[in-house]
Amino acid sequence: MNMLQRRPAPAITLQLLACLVMVVLPHTPHLHPWIWFCFGALTCWRAMAALRHWSMPARWLRLLLALLVFVGVYVTYGRINGQQGGIALLVALLAIKLTETDTLRDHIVAALLAYFVLISQFLFSQELIMVLWLAAGAWLVTATLLSLSHPQSALPYKVSIRHSAMLLLQAAPLMLVFFILFPRIPGPLWGLPSDSGAARSGLTDSMSPGDIGHLVTTDEIAFRVTYAGNAPPPDRSYWRGPVFESFDGRTWRQSADYVTGNVAGLSSRALEPMGTGVEYEVTLEPNRQKWLFTLDMPVQVPADARISRAGFVLAKKEVTERRLYAASSVLNYRLQSALPESERQRNLQLPAQRNPRTRNQAQAWRSQGLTDQQIVNKALQRFRQEPFTYTLQPPTLGIDSIDEFLFDTQRGFCEHFASSFAYQMRAAGIPARIVTGYQGGEFNELGGYYILRQSDAHAWTEVWLQGQGWLRIDPTAAVAPDRIELGLSAALPLGESMATALARRTQEGLWRSLRLRWDWVNNSWYRWVLAYGPELQEEILGRFGIRGWGNMILALTIMGSAFLGALGLVLIWRLQRSRVNDPVQNLWLLFCRKMQRQGLARAPHEGPLDYAERLSAHLPAKARTIRRIARLYIRLRYGHATTDPDERALREFRQAVRAFSAG
Amino acid sequence: METPRWWQFRRRAELRIYKWSTRRRPREAGPVLIHRRRIYIVPTRMGFIFGFLVFVMLMGSMNYMNSLAFVLTFLLTGLGLVTMHHTHRNLLNLRIAAGPQEPVFAGQTASFRVLIDNASNQDRYSLALHWYGDDPITYHDVAAGQKTLVELNLPAPQRGRLPAPRFTVHTTFPLGLFYAWCYVELDMHCLVYPAPADNRLQAPPSRGKHGGRHSQHSGREDFAGLRDYQRNDPPRLIHWKAYPRNRQLVVKQFADPQSDTLWLDWATLTGLDTEARLSQLCRWILDAHRGGLQYGLRLPDVELPPASDENHRHRCLEQLALFEA
User: How far is B273 from chain A (nearest CA, A)?
Assistant: First the structure.
């Protein structure tokens, strides 16, 4: 019977089970508890079966289990493909596989599936820390596979651990060669499941009071920016995100054409750049949205994206993986100096019947005969002069939220200011809209880039004035100029900033520098490893004159074969060299040669003691010396040489062998 | 479950290489050094499954454009390639030599002892020896600088010298993805004695210096041992005490100091064919040896003078094994 069809030792089965549990463990957050229960129960059962030599369950029972799992995953996740459902199914089926893992071959297949579980981890996270898990996981599974090719008895852990580490270390250079030279193609090949990628917080497609206030308490990174030239000053670095034009009295939303996805682009004539552009590269964290943040106002955008009607950039697909893109913007511009009537109407729309006090005041300004510009100034002046407070903990607002904020509470965060300002403008007959995005950022001296976090999320307004087009007005700047110049924590009341995650940002010294360094490492990790795709590959390999798939594959073949050849030579060389480096064996062979000259060659199967006895019989005069040499040889050869290098015995052995003469 | 033919890649490759290599290499006296030119290597079925898995991973990595997935995929690719070297090296520079062989009787199983000598500083794991076409029974580890004796069993139906056929030394260590093997055909033989004849067949041989004297129980002075009961033995010589233990009748034999030698003579066995005669002689030798008697062997052209030691027994049986009419 073939070895593969036999049942391996129980210890080997247990090792495989331990390996599978370890590999599945990091999936815990993505797995429904019942799947873990199922997996855990079957693993325990399999362990018992190995120890007690139970036989595997009947085929119909396994099929029933598999069917139940399919139904269960479908009920739990609503699908059996997709990222979450797929992983759940993989783990559950792996558990069922255990109930038929009887022969050595089944064990090996299960171990190979463990590699598959391992790779699926990276769909959820590709953080730098995952590299450690990759190494540890690959090591673990490889060590298990190694034990499986030693099926009769369990290989000592020390051997399998050391051997697999050595194999992986030798495979690592090949991995590098493949990683760099294997031709990358723009993906995806067959489309991604809709739930792919990692879940993250960020700006959403609507804005209600409190949304951004809630968002800024997280310290997560939204994106990082590297400028090609000088960075613009803080009061000009507004990162434009989704624009909201529809208001229902409480929540600002994107207008209908954005929701249906049937949105027009911004015509090139609508934007008149004034002054030179700013070029930069953005590393955007995945946010499951289509918009790409650009500096206000974008002129050059990535190929798979375009500038939409309201002036923010929309990509073709949602950003589910960290994404690197280059863009350029102009800081001074005139946007839509001629506003189509439909857009004008859209940006004047207000829900009827609400917020009477605000409406009355706006209409009063209008009836005073003030120009649009004067009304804007009047509203901003009101924010400056009345006791408005910029705070993360505004009181909750009732049904006439704008009235209550403007006349009663007067405490709010940027969305309160922006929302009420836009409302006032629309009430006065001036087209106005809300722009959300990020403002400010933290500079990382080490990497020369800016970090924009969720705590830099911001909302401001744009008003359309005759002859000037859309004009950015940031009411927050009127209330809390420090927010714009120095960032959020400087603008908030002292107690509030310390109470939040923002506290960390204000700290100086060692902690901050360590944090920025770590961020730089992470950014480089992303910039050079995770973002290594078709474009970056072309750029980097192009510098070495390797262009096109043909050359890449040629270079890959040459370097791969060269490394493999060299490795083979080293392995063989080390094997041959070993004889030279073994003084005990060399001395023993010397002794054997001396005896051979006397016609007393050692038979190949003869152990040292047998040989010594035979020699003593032939040379009774030398019997004592011969026996002593054999004893010393055995002690040096088979004694615990690792724990006790026994230099003295070796010296004695050397003297005895050298001095020995049979004649 | 029968595996389809196309799936038996390894077996087919091995068969082809086997046919090809038989033409190249004669039997060797040994010890045989497994040189790298002697080692063949092909992927195992698990190797192909591993390759398929890596391919699927590659497709997945490309689809998701996931760099860490690429890293793992390529790490496994590298692992697969590196392990080929290690499987190859697991056999490399081993010395294979014939160990001491024990003779057997025809109809028994000959076990050829083969010595695996690992004179390197690398431990070798999961080495298997098997006759070509058989599946290996056991796997052996040979630590650095150590030797291991491995037994290869082969049925020995006929007396004579049984030459060891070609055998395979193979390994799939470390990951079971590759199958490396080499053929060794050591010039080693197992001596096969004739099968001892059934006891009841023939009366015991004659005693005395000249043979032919019918004096099986003439000398009663010294008890010389026991032998199996024959039909004509007088009942008083039966060793009754031994019956319950052995379930077989044995008779006491007494050595006569004047004529204490037993001649086992080919010529006394008439009416039998050669093999039956040899079997009978073999039985007598065994009985005489067990009885501790002095015995000599007479064959048509050989005569071994009487003796009673282990060596003598072997020499006698060897004569029978290699007897040619």
Answer: 40
